[in-house]
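Saturday, quiet lab. Running sequence design on the structure tokens for the scaffold JK sent over.
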């Protein structure tokens, strides 16, 4: 993993040690191998010129950036009005006005 991060960011990591600092071991502790592989895969999809911190790499391991399996929900435009509902509201309002007139004697 360390070597793959270094190869993905050769310029900024030129002074990195051959082995990762212990904080990186703590950051990936408890992650499954598939999750670490997901983090390495997500490096290519990451929009940054700099390598991730250990916490950012952990987030990449837990993040699903695989857009091939995402489903986009289509939201229909709301510009079309329901004329039936509007007509019913109007009729209801007219009925209420009639009842109000009758009750007041107008």
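Result came back. Writing it out in full:
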């Amino acid at each position: 993993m360390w070597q793959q991060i270094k190869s993905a960011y050769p310029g900024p990591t030129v002074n990195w040690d051959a082995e990762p600092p212990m904080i990186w071991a703590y950051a990936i502790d408890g992650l499954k191998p598939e999750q670490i592989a997901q983090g390495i895969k997500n490096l290519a999809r990451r929009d940054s010129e700099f390598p991730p911190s250990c916490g950012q790499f952990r987030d990449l391991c837990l993040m699903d950036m695989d857009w091939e399996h995402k489903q986009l929900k289509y939201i229909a435009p709301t510009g079309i009005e329901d004329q039936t509902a509007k007509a019913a509201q109007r009729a209801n309002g007219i009925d209420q006005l009639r009842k109000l007139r009758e009750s007041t004697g107008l």
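Notes for JK: Residues 2-66 form one domain. The radius of gyration is 30 Å. Ask whether to fix the surface positions before the next round.
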